[in-house]
Each structure stands twice: as C-alpha cells, then as structure tokens.
Amino acid sequence: MHALRSRLGKLDPAEAEEVIREIESHLHEVVEQAESRGETPDVAALLEGFGAPDVLAEQYVAHIQTGAPPPTGFRVIQRVRQTVTHGLYYSMGAFGFSVAAALLLLALAKVFEPSSVGVWSTRSGESVTVGWSGSPSPEATELLGLGF
Predict the structure, then answer these.
(1) Are 57 and 7 in contact (CB under 8 A)?
(2) What's residue 135's pLDDT?
(3) pLDDT, position 82
(4) DSSP secondary structure, the chain, as one string
(5) 48-95: per-residue pLDDT in tens?
(6) Which residues neighbour 76 within 8 Å (Cβ) at sequence distance 6 or greater?
(7) Beta strands across the sheet bearing 118-121
C-alpha cells in the first residue's frame, strides 16, 4: 500500500487517498469474509492479485485523469457501489409510493367516515397522530378538515 501511495503522486492528494481507501476497504472485506468462513486469509496473495503497484497506479491515474477503463479491482468496487445505490434508490421509491398510497386511502376513508378518520395535531403542534378510530384527545386539532 505504501508503494502504491508513493506512485499515485500524479493525482490530487484527495484522489490518491480515495484510491487507497477503496483498495483497503476491498481488502478488509475479503479478509472479513474469509475469517467469517473460518479460513485464514492470505493477505500476500490478495495484494498480488492487484498486480504490481506501479502498474496499478498507472491504471488508476489513467482512469481518473483520462477516463481510461478502470483497473479490474476498481470495477468490482464500482459494481458493488452501483448495486448499493440502485438498491437504495428502488427501496426508497417503494417506500415513498407506499406512504403515498396509505395517505390516499386515508383521504378516501375520510370521505366515508369523516368523524373517525383523520390526522390530528396537539395544541402545541409538537406531535401529529394519524388514525381511524377518532380523535386521540379532546384538545387535538383536525388537520384534514371535514371534522364533525
């Protein structure tokens, strides 16, 4: 890692540190996975898998500065990052649509049962209650309207 760091001198210091963090993160993940399976990781073999530090540094520099294809290890890290990003994106979208659907159902139910369905706020406005069984307290203020 020290040899790689010294050969990343053509990069901005922040970019060089990002490259080092990416590789270290990948190495830590592989070691943890091996240890969780009860295996003894061969760190030397892992480091050799990245190739010679000068060649790896040249590949990272070319990728960052000119957009050349990333080194093999970098592609794996990018794929993991994209998978996490896509998973988070779609799960947040599903969550948002679920909340929207629940609020829509609540609004439709308010039309048919206006006295028992609603959204109420406490007098001080510190909390909001959504419910189907009527006002949670006599001092609560109806926020959806149509209150009877």
Answers:
(1) yes
(2) 64
(3) 54
(4) -HHHHHHTTTS-HHHHHHHHHHHHHHHHHHHHHHHHTT----HHHHHHHT--HHHHHHHHHHHHHH-PPPPHHHHHHHHHHHHHHHHHHHHHHHHHHHHHHHHHHHHHHHHH-TTT-EEEE-TTSS-EEEESSS-SSTTPEESSS---
(5) 877 888 888 888 888 888 877 766 655 445 555 555 567 777 888 999
(6) 26
(7) 128-131, 118-121, 141-142
How many residues appear in the chain? 148
Least Cα distance to 81 among 35, 25, 8, 33 occurs for: 25
Q: How far is CA 143 from CA 71, 108, 137, 146, in A?
A: 56, 15, 14, 9
Query: Whole-angstrom distance between the N-terminal and C-terminal Cα of the chain?
Result: 71
Tell me how far apart the alpha carbons of residues 10 and 102 are, in angstroms, rounded to a whole number. Answer: 54
Distance CA 113, CA 136 (A): 16
What pLDDT score was predicted for residue 148?
Answer: 46
